[in-house]
């Protein structure tokens, strides 16, 4: 338990998360590499990264499941590790729910409810109905992978935890169930805002939910900014190769492709009115980049760092 002043929950919904030089090592492997950033309270954050980028390790550290190797985590100003009151406000949901497969669905729900002071039984019942699940003596191990995933996200949403994290929640969920999850997550967030962090590879499906985006690559922070600002900076320029090269000189070019005399370049930069006018005059077409395509360009081996 922290020796600081008594812990006070955030009055605005959710908790602020501050990371300073956060590093997590497994032997000689650096899974999280000196990350410093602040996640604002009450935002839905998309945590993106390729396989092995360190997303799961970062989320487990935020959930106080492990201690950092170095650096600090502060949630609502407190170190969450072995901080009993604050840990009750943190919920990490993996697609399989980390359930004991020999425990019944009803008992699994009862255990979660007993550990979460903001538990909403009405929300849980609505979610069980939507996912066609029953709170009964059926053992969790008897459920299909999709049913266990649906139970896990239902419990995660129903906790009402000020910091709720979902690590690849879509695994095992079919398309209708995934969209039901997105709908319910947004509905409960609008009713009672909290800090939500979602790690996913289905970026196109979830992009509309994200208010902030964090991208990590090889354990290091690549960027953290509002989703709308990131989308506004991602632009594809397509036109005569020489004209595209001239216009993008000095810009952050993430990738480019050439087909005959035509070049397409993806940039992460802002084009002012003068540059847009020059592009039009040079026969260069400008187009937005979907968040998923921007992520691919940013984390490709060819991306300019």
Can you put this structure into words, describing what you see?
The chain has 305 residues and is an alpha/beta fold. It has two domains: 17-218, Rossmann fold (3-Layer(aba) Sandwich); 231-299, Alpha-Beta Plaits. Helices cover 33% and strands 28% of the residues. The protein is built from eleven helices and 13 strands. It has helices spanning 55-62, 84-87, 105-115, 121-130, 145-158, 175-191, 203-206, 227-233, 241-248, 273-281, 291-299, and strands spanning 17-26, 29-39, 44-48, 70-75, 90-94, 163-167, 195-199, 212-217, 220-226, 234-240, 253-259, 262-268, 285-288. Strands 5-6-7-3-8-9 form a six-stranded mixed sheet, sandwiched between helices. It has a four-stranded antiparallel sheet with strand order 11-12-10-13, with helices on both faces. A three-stranded antiparallel sheet has the order 2-1-4, covered by helices on one side. α6 (175-191) links the parallel β6 (163-167) and β7 (195-199). α4 (121-130) packs antiparallel against α5 (145-158) and α5 (145-158) packs parallel to α6. The relative contact order is 0.14. The model is unreliable at 1-5 (pLDDT under 50).
Helix/strand layout:
Blueprint: E1 17-26, E2 29-39, E3 44-48, H1 55-62, E4 70-75, H2 84-87, E5 90-94, H3 105-115, H4 121-130, H5 145-158, E6 163-167, H6 175-191, E7 195-199, H7 203-206, E8 212-217, E9 220-226, H8 227-233, E10 234-240, H9 241-248, E11 253-259, E12 262-268, H10 273-281, E13 285-288, H11 291-299
Parallel strand pairs: 3-7, 3-8, 5-6, 6-7
Antiparallel strand pairs: 1-2, 1-4, 8-9, 10-12, 10-13, 11-12
Helix pairs in contact: 4-5, 5-6
């Amino acid at each position: 338990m922290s020796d600081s002043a008594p812990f006070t929950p955030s009055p605005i919904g959710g908790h602020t998360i501050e990371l300073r030089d956060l590093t997590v090592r497994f032997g000689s492997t650096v899974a999280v590499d000196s990350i410093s950033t602040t996640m604002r309270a009450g935002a839905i954050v998309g945590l993106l990264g390729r396989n092995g980028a360190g997303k799961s390790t970062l989320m487990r550290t935020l959930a106080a499941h492990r201690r950092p190797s170095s650096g600090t985590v502060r949630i609502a100003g407190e170190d969450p590790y072995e901080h009993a009151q604050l840990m009750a406000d943190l919920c990490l949901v993996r697609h399989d729910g980390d359930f004991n497969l020999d425990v019944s669905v009803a008992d699994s729900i009862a255990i979660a409810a007993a550990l979460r002071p903001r538990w909403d039984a009405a929300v849980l019942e609505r979610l069980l109905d939507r996912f066609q699940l029953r709170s009964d003596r059926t053992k969790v191990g008897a459920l299909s992978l999709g049913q266990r995933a649906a139970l896990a996200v239902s419990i995660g949403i129903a906790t009402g935890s000020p910091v709720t994290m979902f690590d690849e929640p879509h695994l095992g969920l079919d398309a209708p169930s995934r969209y039901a999850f997105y709908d319910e997550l947004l509905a409960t967030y609008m009713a009672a805002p909290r800090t939500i962090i979602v790690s996913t590879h289905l970026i196109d499906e979830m992009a509309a939910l994200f208010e902030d985006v964090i991208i990590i690559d090889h354990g290091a922070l690549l960027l953290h900014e509002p989703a709308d600002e990131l989308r506004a900076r991602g632009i594809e320029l397509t036109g005569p190769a020489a004209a595209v090269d001239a216009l993008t000189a000095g810009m952050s070019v993430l990738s480019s492709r050439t087909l005959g005399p035509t070049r397409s370049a993806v940039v992460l930069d802002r084009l002012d009115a003068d540059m847009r006018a020059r592009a039009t005059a040079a026969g260069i077409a400008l187009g937005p980049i979907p968040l998923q395509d921007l992520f691919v360009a940013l984390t490709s081996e060819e991306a300019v760092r």
